[in-house]
Amino acid sequence: MNFRDYSTPQEAEMELAPMIDVVFLLLIFFIVTWNSAQQERNVDVSVPAAEEGADPERQVGEIIVNVDKDGLIVVNGAVVTEADLLVRLHAISDEYPDQAVILRGDSKASFQHIINILDVCKKANIWNIAFATTKPQETPITKKSGKAP
Q1: pTM score of the predicted model
Q2: With helix as H, strand as E and coil as C, how does 73-86 read?
Q3: Cross-strand partners of 128
Q4: Local structure of 18: helix, strand or coil
C-alpha cells in the first residue's frame, strides 16, 4: 500500500489569470474615464470663477457644450451650429426628458452667445442645465494686517 506523506506542506501557487483579468479591467476603466475627461476639456475654454459654486454629482450621459470666446460651439469634439445643436438636443430630450447639459462658456465670450445656447436648450425642452465654473485663485493673507499684499 502506498500512503501519502501528510507531513510535507504543499506550496501555495498563485493563479495569474484572475490577477491579469483584474489588471485589464482596471486599465479599461481608466482609459474610458480619461477619454470622457478629454472630451470635456477638448476646447481651450477658460470658464469664469465663482466663490459659491457647488460640486454636483456627475450624471451619466450628460452633454457638455463648450462655447469659446468667439462664440464657436463644440459638442463632443465636433463644431456645431445653433441649428445643429437644436436638432441634437431635441432628439436627445425626446428620448431622455431629464437630460443634463453642462454649459462651459469662456469667461471672455459674449453674454449673447451664452444666452443663445440657453435659448436652444429651452427650445429643445431641456431644463437641467448647469454652468461650469472654477474656484477663484486665493491670494495669501498676511496675519498682522489681515489684508492681501
Answers
A1: 0.56
A2: EEECCEEECHHHHH
A3: 100
A4: helix
Cell of 16: 495569474
Q: Which residue has the higher pLDDT, 65 or 1?
A: 65
**Using one digit for the tens of pLDDT, what is the confidence trace for 101-122?**
888 888 888 888 888 999 999 9
In 3D space, the residue among 94, 85, 95 whose CA is nearest the CA of residue 64 turns out to be 85
Backbone angles phi, psi at 78, to 5 degrees: -110, 135
pLDDT, tens digit, 9 for 90 and up, residues 5-46: 666 667 778 888 999 999 999 999 988 887 766 655 555 665
Residues 86 and 124: beta-carbon distance below 8 Å: yes
CA distance 106 to 48: 7
Provide the H-helix boundaries in the chain.
16-40, 82-95, 111-123
Q: Shortest CA distance to 87 belongs to which of 115, 51, 55, 124?
A: 124
For each of the domains in the chain, give its residue range(s) and CATH number, in order of start.
44-131 (3.30.420.270)
Q: For residue 90, how far is the Cα from the chain centroid?
A: 21
CB 91 within 8 A of CB 123: no
